[in-house]
Amino acid sequence: MQSPSGENGNIPEMPENGTFPDGMTIPESGEMPEMPQGGGKRMPGGNMGFGSSSSGADLDYIDDEISSYSDIFDNDETDADEEAKMRVISALKGLAEENDLENYLNTEEIIRYFVAHNFVLNYDSYTGNMLHNYYLYENDGKLSMLPWDYNLAFGGFSGNGGESGGSEATSLVNTGIDTPLSGVTEEARPMWNWIVSNEKYLETYHSIFDSLISGYFESGKFESEIDSLYEMLYPYVEKDPSAFYFADEFTAAYKTMKEFCLLRAESIRLQLNGNLSTKSDEQDLSNQVDASGINIRSMGSQGGGREDSAGSFGNMPQMNIPSMPNQENNSQSATPTEPDK
């Protein structure tokens, strides 16, 4: 594919005042818009910091004391009152007891969250050992999970895959959809464990995965969408002096991500059809999809960013991010950090 250059071969002007094609805008202040609340309470599970398994970020029930869940409530985005916080604790208790889960969890939404999440393999998250980068959303006593911060997805966390990919890239692409955790046990991640440990919910999980693979990847929609996004974004990346990566690196990342996703979809189809185990450690290596030609790092990595001629990395764009609650007096709570977007 040739590098796109806008209509009539002209590179478009960089957006001004935050205005992008098709009316998409970013507020001039740089502040992110609020999510529709719908009566619910949005509480980050350490979305900008690192959670602690002893303070609620693992979503395991501890007791009925609000103070025991500092990783959740000290990072509350909506100033939830005591009644709302007790609803969250009650839901976590229901999750721990695994009785009538539909009364405490939006089960289908959570399953859909994990289908998408486990496809892209983001270990800088709840499925890794960091316990952050997700939102916990409570509405009418039921919990859901919302995604946050996926710049280290596709195996980018901790430099997975190495410079040349090889066997590590193949291992990533073939990660079993029923064993998505890294460095932790299923019991240590109760919001995932209720799915994989229950035959009914696991069947629903597989069914939704099947719909994703057939409806988005095997249908050609994914290829059409990623090509369209590349064509739209490339001219801006090419002109942007503060872009994180050079235009040729952006092109390499696009090609690699496209190949990675198609191979990942191929592997998951084999898993769903029973030709490859859904558990990584039970797979016959001879049946795995070969991804040895993929360089995972070309899609980006920790500490990534383009290096200019002076040997320093480009400046990150400034954005006004609302400050997190003061946590100086809570040694176990999540520590806010600047987002690594």
Overall description:
With 341 residues, the protein is mainly alpha-helical. The chain has one domain (38-299). Helix content is 33%, strand content 5%. The protein contains 8 helices and 3 strands, in the order βαααββααααα. A 3-stranded antiparallel beta sheet has the order 1-2-3. It is globular, with a radius of gyration of 21 Å. Mean pLDDT is 80; it is low at 23-40, 44-49, 159-164 and 308-341.
Question: Which features characterize this protein?
Answer:
341 residues, mainly alpha, globular
> What's the main sheet like?
3 strands, antiparallel
Order of helices and strands: EHHHEEHHHHH
**Structural domain tally:** 1
Share of helical residues:
25-40%
Identify the strand order in the major beta sheet.
1-2-3
- Helix/strand/pairing category: mainly alpha
Distance between the termini: 28 Å
Number of helices: 8
Q: How large a portion of the residues is in β-strands, by DSSP E? A: under 5%
What would the average pLDDT be, to the nearest integer? 80
Low-confidence parts, pLDDT < 50 over ≥5 residues? 23-40, 44-49, 159-164, 308-341
Shape: globular
- What's the count of strands? 3
Q: Please compute the radius of gyration using only Cα atoms.
A: 21 Å
What's the layout of helices and strands?
Blueprint: E1 41-44, H1 70-73, H2 82-97, H3 107-120, E2 134-139, E3 142-147, H4 167-173, H5 190-196, H6 199-217, H7 221-239, H8 247-272
Antiparallel strand pairs: 1-2, 2-3
Compact description:
With 341 residues, the protein is mainly α. β2 and β3 form a beta hairpin.
